[in-house]
Amino acid sequence: MLKIVKYPAAILKKKAKEVRGITPDLLSLISCMELAMEKNQGVGLAAPQVGFSRQIFVVKDDKKSRAFFNPKIRSQSRQRSEDEEGCLSLPGLFVLVKRAERVRVSCNTKEGKPVVVEAEGLASRIFQHEIDHLQGKLIIDRITPFQRWKIRKQLQEIKQKGRTQQNTSMHLVH
Questions:
Q1: For residue 168, what pLDDT is reported?
Q2: CB-hemisphere CA count at 13 Å for 54?
Q3: Is 171 labelled as part of a ligand binding site?
Q4: 82 is catalytic
Q5: Does domain 10-164 have CATH number 2.60.40.10?
Q6: What is the pLDDT of residue 81?
Q7: Which Gene3D superfamilies match (predicted)?
């Protein structure tokens, strides 16, 4: 079972590497990510959150999960909404994050097929959150200085616990 990488691990602040071809190892990684997402009761999980610097994320879609490679936001609505978000890499922390109501994302499926996904509401929020992870951004990078000040003690506790976590970062070899 893959472990969730916790803040302040360096991999969470780095842009993930693009996937150049779907291999059996990557398909195995996706299966492990789906299990980790389920076990931790998440609705989305990005590869850097399990120690892999690859542009891959999985999301829970109704009862099944889906994987996406090399996602890019192509357009987003001007309409924004603010809602509470949590993150498996920041356990117990929930902050208000403003995001676009709708996004259009180009990406590849695990079959290697290029697709365009149009997401709105909660799905839009999940896609933006996971794509942020692939760009080295966390929800705490999307909040105001005042919000950050309000959560400073909680963030410090998470940081201390995260530093004690064993380094589980791995790299796929082609």
A1: 46
A2: 28
A3: no
A4: no
A5: no
A6: 97
A7: Peptide deformylase
- 155, 93 Cβ separation under 8 angstroms: yes
Q: Kindly name the residue from 18, 38, 111, 130 that is annotated as catalytic.
A: 130
Domain locations in the chain?
Answer: 10-164
Give the global pTM. Answer: 0.92
| Average pLDDT for runs of 10 along the chain of length 174 | 96 98 96 97 98 98 91 98 98 98 98 96 98 99 97 96 64 44
DSSP the chain: -PPPPPTT-GGGGSPPBPP-S--HHHHHHHHHHHHHHHHTT-SEEEGGGGT--BSEEEEEETTEEEEEEEEEEEEE-S-EEEEEEEETTEEEEEEEEEEESEEEEEEE-TTS-EEEEEEETHHHHHHHHHHHHHTT--GGGGS-HHHHHHTHHHHHHHHHHHHHS---------
32 is an annotated ligand-binding site residue:
no
Strands 114-120 and 56-61: unpaired
Residue 104 contacts residue 48 (beta carbons within 8 Å): no
Q: How far apart are CA 39 and CA 54, in angstroms?
A: 21
pLDDT at 16: 99
Residue 163's pLDDT is: 86
Question: What distance in Å separates the CA atoms of residue 132 and residue 135, rounded to the nearest whole number?
Answer: 5
